Amino acid sequence: MSREQRLAGVFVELADTLVDDFDMIEFLHTLTERSVELLHADAAGLILADPRDQLHVLASTTDQARVLELFELQNSEGPCLDCFTTGQPVVNIDLAEVETRWPRFQAATTAAGFRSVHALPLRLRGQVIGAMNLFCRNQTSLSDDDLAVGQALSDVATIGLLQERTVRRGEIIAEQLQGALNSRILIEQAKGVLAERAGIGVDAAFAVLRTYARRNERHLSAVAAAVIDGSLDLTLSPPIEHRK
């Protein structure tokens, strides 16, 4: 399958947000995963602004990427923050400039084994609602075509999140984002619970949660809540759910 054919398929996949009821967390994770795939990165993390413009980490392809995104927010420095502030891509920055602009972030990414980082804004016209970091283990540059593809994915995702009905009704955006933040907390707790119970890593635990949710057409947050309260045991094969 050519890159163009795969890209067309991804756009269709992202267009699922146009339905009345969609899982925002699942959608954002799909965006990060497809961006890693199409742009040949090794990991990605995404931050989104709440109605008060406070930034939160809402999606990542690995727990390592999530930790780096949290580090960026906690230390108030990094390409994702600059990208969100300016609304412009922050890409192809040489190592010397990276160390000068974001010394603590550069040290953290280097310690994690990444050699280069790129950031793309989630924006619609003049409105920026978040940004996505792409982490690469090699020193890589995005070509003009890569940048066009990455920004197109981010723009389509932004349009999906800010549909006309939600733009006109700001309270829906706030409710959706608050729901996503609550879901994120549940999911992080469930990852830890499942990882401890099954003796697996947190990335593997998240993969188990997502797989079960998809196969059973349930929201990730609902599956996470069931794992936490013990009504769903995903350590067994097949999983067992005790109805309450």
Task: Note the main attributes of this structure.
globular, two-stranded antiparallel sheet, 2 domains, 6 strands, 244 residues
Write the layout of secondary structure elements.
Layout: H1 3-14, H2 24-39, E1 43-49, E2 55-60, H3 63-75, H4 79-86, H5 95-101, H6 103-111, E3 116-124, E4 127-136, H7 144-161, H8 164-168, H9 170-198, H10 202-215, H11 220-229, E5 232-233, E6 240-241
Antiparallel strand pairs: 1-2, 1-4, 3-4, 5-6
Helix pairs in contact: 1-2, 1-7, 2-7, 3-6, 5-6, 9-10, 9-11, 10-11
Describe this structure in words.
The strands form 2 sheets. Strands 2-1-4-3 form a 4-stranded antiparallel beta sheet, sandwiched between helices. The protein has a two-stranded antiparallel sheet with strand order 5-6. α1 runs parallel beside α7 (144-161), α5 crosses α6 and α9 crosses α11. The chain has helices spanning 3-14, 24-39, 63-75, 79-86, 95-101, 103-111, 144-161, 164-168, 170-198, 202-215, 220-229; strands at residues 43-49, 55-60, 116-124, 127-136, 232-233, 240-241. The mean pLDDT is 88. It folds into 2 domains: 3-162, Beta-Lactamase; 179-241, Arc Repressor Mutant, subunit A (Orthogonal Bundle). It has 244 residues and is an alpha+beta fold. β1 and β2 form a beta hairpin. The protein starts with a helix and ends with a strand.
